[in-house]
Specification:
With about 400 residues, the protein is an alpha/beta fold. The chain is about 35% helix and about 20% strand. The chain has helices at about 35-55, 80-85, 95-105, 110-115, 125-135, 145-155, 210-225, 250-265, 270-275, 285-295, 300, 320-325, 345-350, 365-375, and strands at about 5, 20, 30, 60-65, 70-75, 115-120, 135-140, 160-165, 175-180, 185-190, 230-235, 240-245, 335, 355-360, 380-385.
């Protein structure tokens, strides 16, 4: 198949729309559904991300993509009982490594992952398909599907769920083009290999990076490679826990991603895990309620007339002091940035979310201030010398 017609472009008024190859055949096969323009943008960016994560870590990888940036990305490490519960997968029994990867990718920021497009590094098994089946999602791309997994996915969304198979042998051309306003842009593909050598230049007083943190650094930078810039990514234990994408200011990226990382950890607190949800509440409604409960306006779900719709009894307010005390337990977090930090305020904000290890290109005229701020907190910072802008 050389080309594939789409329903419309980014918006319904943008017609006609298609994907096609100027040379050769399309490296994808649509096994079910009718993916759209944005679906394919998410699918193909997501596939590149998980392919690189798999190569870098030798573990199955998954990502949850929304509007051409990842909402979450992870490798297939086992989940603790706490993580199984906050990701709503504690009823699925033993998870395969691929299912664990998607549980982490989807669960880190469930609000942003709602209606995602999924990319899997490995053949989709039934365990992963069962997890996908009950989430609100637009589709999935993978190198293959077990028969029982494909059969289940074909029944999702009344049979319209998008299932794409990608050819793992496909190699894109070394140059890529795109058009803006009728003008064609051309550049070399970003083929940068992200490995431990990228983090060899450690410019802070503390230079010790343990093996697990080194893996998390690779996950952060690979995730950023496919995240709309400016972007910052917080990673812990093999998964992104906060991604700030598409912000014009670096500090706003750091704050946005840091808030998401904080929320990920706050969801593991007793106050949140013991919330008395009504049995018939839907998963998305639970996610929304938790987000409000741990946010700045908790009375939106705790006030009389509101809590009765969600909870069996009125929860106590999760106070600011209680949240601050709980967040003191968030430690040894890795932070990656797609370009240099211009000011030490980024480090101050990162420190409040437990960041201990940082990877960034370096090259600011205020590098000395950024390094000094890291030294104040014993943070290890590596200068990669490589910018990872993505648009």
């Amino acid at each position: 198949m050389k080309e594939l017609a789409l329903k419309y472009g980014c918006n319904p008024n943008q017609k006609p729309s298609k994907i096609y190859m100027e040379n050769g055949e399309l490296p994808i096969e649509v096994l079910n559904g009718k993916p759209g323009y944005i679906n394919f943008l998410d699918a193909l960016n997501g596939w590149q991300l998980v392919s690189e994560l798999k190569k870098a870590t030798n573990l199955p990888a998954a990502t949850s993509f929304k509007h051409v940036s990842p909402a979450g990305a992870a490798v297939g490490r086992p989940l603790s009982d706490t993580l199984k519960k906050i990701y709503w997968v504690d009823d699925l029994g033993e998870l395969t490594p691929l299912a664990s990867a998607y549980a982490r990718a989807r669960g880190a920021d469930r609000m942003s992952s709602y209606g995602d497009f999924i990319a899997l590094s490995d053949t989709c098994d039934l365990c992963t398909a069962k997890m996908i089946f009950r989430e609100v999602s637009d589709g999935v791309i993978a190198p293959g599907y077990d028969d029982d997994a494909l059969e289940l996915l074909k029944t999702k969304r009344k049979g319209s769920y998008n299932v794409i198979k990608i050819d793992t042998n496909y190699k894109p051309a070394q140059t890529e083009t795109k058009q803006v306003y009728g003008i064609t842009f051309e550049q070399g593909r970003n083929e940068l290999v992200i490995d431990e050598q990228l983090f060899a230049n450690r410019v802070t007083e503390n230079k010790e990076i343990p093996k697990d943190a080194m893996i998390d650094m690779a996950i952060a930078m690979i995730t950023l490679k496919y995240t709309q810039s400016n972007s910052v990514c917080y990673v812990k234990d093999g998964q992104a826990i906060g991604i700030g994408a598409g912000q014009q200011s670096r500090i706003h990226c750091t704050r946005l991603a840091g808030t998401k990382a904080d929320n990920w950890f706050l969801r593991q607190s007793p106050q949140v895990m013991n919330l008395p949800f009504k049995e018939d509440i839907r998963r998305a409604e639970r996610d929304n309620a938790i987000d409000v409960y741990i946010g700045e306006e908790p009375m939106d779900v705790l006030a009389d007339g509101a809590w009765q719709q969600i909870f069996t009894k009125q929860p106590e307010v999760f106070t600011l002091e209680e949240k601050k005390n709980w967040l003191l337990g968030l430690k040894d977090v890795v932070l990656g940035s797609d370009a240099f930090f211009p000011f030490g305020d980024n480090i101050e904000r990162a420190h409040r979310s437990g960041v201990k290890y940082i990877a960034q290109p370096g090259g600011s005229i205020r590098d000395d201030n950024v390094i000094e701020t890291c030294n104040k907190y014993g943070i290890v910072m590596a200068f990669t010398g490589i910018r990872l802008f993505h648009h």
